[in-house]
Design brief:
The protein is α/β, with parallel strands linked by helices. The chain folds into two domains: 1-46, no CATH class; 47-233, UDP-N-acetylmuramoyl-L-alanine:D-glutamate ligase, CATH 3.40.1190. It has helices at residues 2-6, 49-53, 56-60, 73-85, 102-106, 115-122, 129-141, 180-193, 198-212, 225-233, and strands spanning 24-29, 35-40, 65-67, 90-92, 110-111, 146-150, 156-160, 163-167. The longest helix is centred in the C-terminal third of the chain and has 15 residues, at 198-212.
Length: 237
Amino acid sequence: MSVLASEGINTAYILRDSQAATGVGFITLDHAGNNRIVVVPGANLRYSVQDLAQIESLIKDSDILIMQLEMDMSVIEHAVELAGRYQVPVILNPAPARALNDELLRGVTYLTPNETEAEILTGVKVTSIDRAKEAAEALLEKGVKTVVLTLAEKGALVASNAGATHVSGFSVQPVDTVAAGDAFNGAFAVAISKGKSLVEACRFANAVGAIAVTRPGAIPSLPSAAEVERFLAGQTS
């Protein structure tokens, strides 16, 4: 946790479990830097609804609740319910990929699947921007308020009942795509919490993801705000 502390991240609510090891992900890379991750959840699955109840006041006072699916689904479902109770926006990154029920999806403010996750959730194989729009429309019909479908080097598609917009990505030479999705989601959450529009937030998140894939590793690949500003200042569009 020393790395988190050095970045000024509050670690007070990280629990330790005496019976299970820390969850880990084993990552393999191909020659193009694309990754495949095998997850062993370990202590992640020991976190319970009772543990979540201890931080209800923290959720109530939050600007945004952001989650993925590496915990027991009962915890995810209850957290979404709590956020809805206190009108806290929810960002759900549906990874590792799995089917989700419509009741859960109706509580999600921003769903951020990649192409594979979108296909699992909708049955639509995302092979183009048009197909991404089809998948996003299917998710909106399930009750998601806003879909932010990440498209790797093609950027992201933002869709809501007001329409869909493709936000182009940035051309970089990838070295390691590990943490690209996490980089995008964290950056998107920061941008939304600062009041940026959906398109602006996606462009910012695309930039953070683009920088991250040019570096090896997960946490070490994440850029500072100043780096992102310099990167965006050097773009022509």
